[in-house]
């Protein structure tokens, strides 16, 4: 397995991977939005590639204040092999290069395995915070 940065040519395959991996899909989970974030200078989309196919992904962004990680997904048949941990480690390396000092991670509450993973790699749940969100439309 290798970890590499996604290119705009990976956008369609990445969206299909997320759907197949059981990720929650929202208004920004389409190839056009993926291409836009891939070319954004303060973002990195990492892909775990095994035998020429995507088996994991992680998006990291930096807004100048905090680093953020989104879209950690691993192909169900490939879980428990260290793919997610490797992706997080590589993202943290990118963040350090950008000067990121604090990182936020969004985890859906109905996915206890995800909460357990993030806690295990050093990202405990912050009980002081709630997320408020709206969609602005297309």
Outline of the structure:
With 138 residues, the chain is of the alpha+beta class. It has helices spanning 11-20, 31-39, 83-98, 112-120; strands at 2-5, 43-50, 53-62, 67-74, 103-105. The chain has a five-stranded mixed β-sheet, with helices on both faces.
Question: Which keywords apply here?
Answer:
about 140 residues, alpha+beta, Aminopeptidase, five-stranded mixed β-sheet, 4 helices, globular
Task: Describe it.
By secondary structure, this protein is of the alpha+beta class. The protein has a single domain (2-120), classed as Aminopeptidase (3-Layer(aba) Sandwich), CATH 3.40.630. It has helices spanning 11-20, 31-39, 83-98, 112-120; strands at residues 2-5, 43-50, 53-62, 67-74, 103-105. Strands 1-2-3-4-5 form a five-stranded mixed sheet, with helices on both faces. β4 (67-74), α3 and β5 form a beta-alpha-beta unit. The longest helix has 16 residues, at 83-98. The protein is globular. The mean pLDDT is 91.
Topology of helices and strands:
Blueprint: E1 2-5, H1 11-20, H2 31-39, E2 43-50, E3 53-62, E4 67-74, H3 83-98, E5 103-105, H4 112-120
Parallel strand pairs: 4-5
Antiparallel strand pairs: 1-2, 2-3, 3-4
């Amino acid at each position: 397995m290798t970890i590499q940065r996604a290119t705009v040519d990976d956008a369609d395959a990445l969206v299909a991977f997320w759907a197949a991996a059981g990720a929650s899909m929202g208004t920004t989970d389409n190839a056009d939005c993926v291409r836009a974030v891939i070319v954004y200078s303060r973002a990195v989309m990492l892909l775990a590639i095994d035998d020429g196919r995507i088996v994991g992904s992680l998006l990291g962004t930096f807004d100048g204040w905090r680093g953020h990680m989104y879209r950690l997904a691993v192909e169900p048949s490939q879980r428990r092999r260290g793919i997610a941990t490797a992706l997080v480690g590589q993202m943290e390396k990118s963040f350090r290069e950008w000067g990121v000092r604090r990182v936020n991670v969004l985890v859906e509450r109905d996915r206890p395995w995800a909460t357990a993973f993030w806690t295990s790699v050093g990202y405990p749940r912050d009980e002081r915070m709630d997320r408020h969100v709206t969609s602005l439309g297309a």
